[in-house]
Amino acid sequence: MATRVRRNALFFLTLLFLLSVSNLVQAARGGGKLRPQECNSKCSYRCSATSHKKPCMFFCLKCCTKCLCVPAGTYGNKQSCPCYNNWKTKEGRPKCP
Question: How far apart are CA 1 and CA 50, in angstroms?
Answer without folding.
Answer: 66
